[in-house]
């Protein structure tokens, strides 16, 4: 199935297939990238991944997303969603006005979730939250989810997508440091010491654009990253 999609991608780009939208193409590309990156003789054919809107009626999937969110941050940001209840509240909030909420499904099970919040009159959107199931990381799902959010923000007329990436657990060289009086100097020399996601975002074209010293307590900063998602005319 995935190979069939891969082979047909170049044809889908032809103008005689007007019903294939950019968003569809993104979906296909995400699906293909994921399948290819999961390549092994055993799973290549039976690991189709789909990205679609998370729907209010998706009761079982919403619970899976909440569990994934809770588990995904319990180590690095334990106060973000201290329990499944708080995680579920976050999931429910993603259905509010001015939100985007997309889920990655594998065999109808949630393996990743990304949401975004409209800000600055829709010129800017905040990516929040983003999580991929522990057992499915580094297989391209995070990239596929962010790409989908970028595409949606672009379609809605947004220019910028930004994300706040805390360091509450010693994952960068900024952790435990007094960033004053020159926080930007320290930010310039940031190093990833323990798998902080800022490098993941850099690979997707995000740029570090700021830091809030002590955002989560002394020496626990929040790191801001942004990306222009629309080409300027
Ligand atoms: C961060 C996260 C969403 C990435 O999802 P993923 O599906 O594993 O990412 P991808 O497979 O698309 O990775 C794309 C690239 O980024 C790299 N990458 C992923 N996570 C990384 C990390 N924490 N640090 C450095 N590089 C990372 C991958 O190795 C890959 O590199 P490559 O293209 O050279 O092979 C996932 O690790 C996660 O859910 N983490 C816990 C929650 C979290 O940190 N959310 C973001 C909070 S701001």
Question: How would you describe the overall organization of this protein?
Answer:
The chain is built from seven helices and seven strands; from the N terminus they run ααβααβββαβααββ. It has a single domain (41-228), classed as Gcn5-related N-acetyltransferase (GNAT) (Aminopeptidase, 3-Layer(aba) Sandwich). Helix 5 (141-155) links the parallel strand 4 and strand 5. A seven-stranded mixed sheet has the order 1-2-3-4-5-7-6, with helices on both faces. Helix 1 (2-12) runs antiparallel to helix 2 (22-37), helix 2 runs antiparallel to helix 5 (141-155) and helix 3 (59-73) crosses helix 4 (84-93). It is an alpha+beta fold. It is 34% helix and 23% strand. Coenzyme A (COA) is lined by residues 72-73, 130-132, 137-143, 163, 165, 195, 197, 199-200, 203.
Short descriptors:
233 residues; alpha+beta; Aminopeptidase; 7-stranded mixed β-sheet; 7 strands; 23% strand; globular; binds coenzyme A
| Domain tally | 1
Q: What amount of the residues lies in strands?
A: 15-25%
Shape: globular
* Straight-line distance between termini: 38 Å
CATH superfamily: Gcn5-related N-acetyltransferase (GNAT)
Number of helices: 7
**Radius of gyration based on Cα positions:** 18 Å
| Element-level helix/strand string | HHEHHEEEHEHHEE
Question: Largest sheet, order of strands side by side?
Answer: 1-2-3-4-5-7-6
What would the CATH topology be?
Answer: Aminopeptidase
Mean pLDDT: 85
């Amino acid at each position: 199935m995935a190979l069939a999609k891969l082979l047909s991608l170049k044809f889908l780009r032809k103008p005689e297939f007007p019903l294939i939208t950019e968003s569809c193409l993104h979906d296909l590309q995400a699906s293909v990238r994921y399948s290819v990156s999961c390549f092994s003789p055993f799973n290549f054919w039976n690991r189709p991944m789909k990205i679609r809107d998370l729907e209010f009626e998706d009761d079982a999937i919403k619970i899976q997303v909440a569990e994934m969110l809770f588990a995904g941050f319990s180590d690095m940001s334990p106060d973000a969603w201290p329990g499944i209840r708080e995680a579920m509240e976050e999931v429910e909030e993603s259905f509010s006005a001015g939100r985007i909420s997309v889920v990655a499904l594998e065999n109808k099970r949630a393996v990743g979730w990304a949401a975004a919040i409209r800000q600055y009159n829709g010129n800017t959107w905040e990516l929040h939250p983003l999580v991929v199931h522990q057992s499915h990381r580094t297989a391209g799902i995070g990239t596929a989810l962010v790409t989908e959010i970028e595409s949606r923000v672009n379609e809605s007329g947004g220019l910028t997508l930004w994300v706040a990436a805390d360091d509450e657990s010693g994952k960068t060289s900024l952790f435990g440091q007094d960033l004053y009086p020159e926080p930007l100097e320290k930010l310039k020399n940031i190093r990833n010491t323990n798998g902080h996601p800022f490098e993941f975002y850099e690979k997707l074209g995000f740029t570090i654009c700021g830091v809030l010293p002590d955002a989560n307590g002394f020496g626990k900063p929040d790191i801001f990253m942004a990306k222009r998602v629309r080409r300027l005319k």
